[in-house]
Amino acid sequence: MFLTGVLKGIQVTIENLFKRALTIRYPHQKIEAAERFRGEHSFDISKCKSCGLCERICPSRAIEMIEIKGKKYPKIDMGKCSFCGLCTEICPFGALKLTKNFSLASGNKKDFIKKPRKLKK
Ligand code: SF4
Ligand code: SF4
Fold first, then answer.
1. Is 48 in the pocket of ligand 1 (CB under 6 A)?
2. Neighbours of 77 (CB within 10 A)
3. Which of 51, 33, 35, 121 shows the shortest CA–CA distance to 87?
4. Pocket, ligand 2, Cβ cutoff 6 A
5. What residue numbers bound the domain in which 89 lies?
6. CATH code of 55's domain
């Protein structure tokens, strides 16, 4: 019984030794995210009309409207965001979108706060 298990283990090892690896050397290698992947937000400040709908619909309370030069724009706390996409669906002007960027890891909590002027277009 023991010997059968050892032989089976060796067989599986040899079989997989020459197969292509399913893993990649992240972050040195990257794979393209799926077409409908929901990652980091992009924000086009020129399209935003400060309606505040994104803040109101966010179930994680990750969005807070903050004032910049007399107008209010969404500040997003990526640490709270569940990437549900509701804020992008409700935005009537297409100002908010979710990109395929999933490389969001950081040891600094401040990096997860996306102020409107810092959001990528
Ligand atoms: S994706 Fe969902 S959880 Fe994240 S900010 Fe938008 S509404 Fe909130
Ligand atoms: S991003 Fe869209 S939903 Fe949010 S305040 Fe601006 S226009 Fe309104």
1. no
2. 16
3. 51
4. 48-54, 74, 90-91, 93, 95-96
5. 32-118
6. 3.30.70.3270
